[in-house]
Every structure is written in C-alpha cells, then in structure tokens.
Amino acid sequence: MFFIRTATEGDLQKVQVLLRETWHATYDPIYGVAKVEELIGQWHSLPALKERLGRPNGEFLVADDGRRIGGMAFAAMTPKMAKTAMLHQLYVHPSLQRQGIGRDLFAELETCFPDAEVMRLEVDPKNAAAIAFYRAHGFVEVDRIGHCGGEDNSIPVIVMEKPLAGM
C-alpha cells in the first residue's frame, strides 16, 4: 500500500529514477530515446527537483510504500494567473499504473491549494493515457499551444483545466 506524503530532499534521487523510467516508457515511442534523455536532463535533474521541493506556494508529493517511491506529483500556484494552481508533474511508475496511485496523488493535490479556483495542466497530445486520466478526473481542454515548458521548446501541448471544489 502506498501512502501519499510531502517529498523530502532524501527522496529526490528515487524520484529522479522514477521519472527517468516513466519518461522512457511513455515518451521514447513519441520522441525517441535521445530527445527523452535531453528532456530528462533539463527537467528532471537533481537541481531542478530540489528547486521544486523548495518552491513557495508549491506542493511536491510522493507515493511511498516504505520500500520505494511509486509515484510523484508537483503543483504550484502560478503567479501569471490569479487563483490558479498549475499541475506541473504527476507520474506513476509504469509497473504500478492503474492501481489508484495517480488518483490518490491527484486527490491530495486538490486539497493543497485552498485559494485556487482552478487547476491547470499541459499534456502532450500524443499521451492518450494521460489525457484519459485527466478527463476522468474532471479536466477539460481549454487550449492548444506549441511550446511545452517555455517558448524555446517546440513540443505542442493540450492545456486542460478543472474547477476546484472550493469555488
């Protein structure tokens, strides 16, 4: 059984391994191994994870069974949009998907931002499993843009939003 808790600095190496394995399983068929390695190096390095861990108005969660980290999630209030929490990451190890870990991580995140009226995310249009997960949890498509993670990246994304219960 996995328990959802706030991540600590001691979790970051395990989270990095989880992200590497999950990203290769999900995105190698879409982008190829070399591009996935490049993105992992940019977005999932230990310094990048450590920065998220200490980010004000953010919540970095892990799913932990006492032996391993089976999933992780990170969301933060966005200064660009009032009353909006941005879901930046929600990943479950491929061998543990469809067992409720993602649902539990997401349910916990929904309670972490009492001032937020909306949760927003960006998802690759080719990641059908993630899109289905988010739709099943109340998200709807609100936009499509051509630059996931910033203007210097040409990866297209679907922007999805969900109203939060506190509204």
Describe the structure.
- With 167 residues, the chain is of the alpha+beta class.
- It has a domain at 3-118: 3-Layer(aba) Sandwich (Aminopeptidase), CATH 3.40.630.30.
- It has helices spanning 12-31, 33-43, 46-53, 101-111, 128-136; strands at residues 3-6, 58-64, 69-77, 84-92, 118-123, 140-145, 157-163.
- Strands 1-2-3-4-5-7-6 form a seven-stranded mixed β-sheet, with helices on both faces.
- Helix 1 (12-31) runs antiparallel to helix 2.
- The model has no long low-confidence stretch (mean pLDDT 90).
Please outline the helices and strands.
Blueprint: E1 3-6, H1 12-31, H2 33-43, H3 46-53, E2 58-64, E3 69-77, E4 84-92, H4 101-111, E5 118-123, H5 128-136, E6 140-145, E7 157-163
Parallel strand pairs: 4-5
Antiparallel strand pairs: 1-2, 2-3, 3-4, 5-7, 6-7
Helix pairs in contact: 1-2
Summarize the structure.
With 167 residues, the protein is of the alpha+beta class. It has 5 helices and 7 strands; from the N terminus they run βαααβββαβαββ. The N and C termini lie far apart (32 Å).
Report strand %.
Answer: 25-35%
Count of extended strands: 7
Query: Structural class of the secondary elements?
Result: alpha+beta
Q: What percent of residues adopt helix (DSSP H or I)? A: 25-40%
- Spatial sequence of strands, sheet with the most strands: 1-2-3-4-5-7-6
Q: If you compute it from the alpha carbons, what radius of gyration comes out, rounded to the nearest whole angstrom?
A: 15 Å
Gross morphology is globular
Distance from N terminus to C terminus (CA atoms, Å) equals 32 Å
Q: Which H/E pattern describes the elements?
A: EHHHEEEHEHEE
Name of the CATH class of the domain at 3-118 = Alpha Beta
Write down the CATH topology of the domain at 3-118.
Aminopeptidase
| Count of alpha/pi helices | 5
Enumerate the spans where pLDDT stays under 50 for 5 or more consecutive residues. Answer: none
* CATH architectural designation of the domain at 3-118: 3-Layer(aba) Sandwich
Integer average pLDDT:
90
Question: Biggest sheet, open or closed, and with what strands and sense?
Answer: 7 strands, mixed
- Per CATH, the superfamily of the domain at 3-118 is Gcn5-related N-acetyltransferase (GNAT)
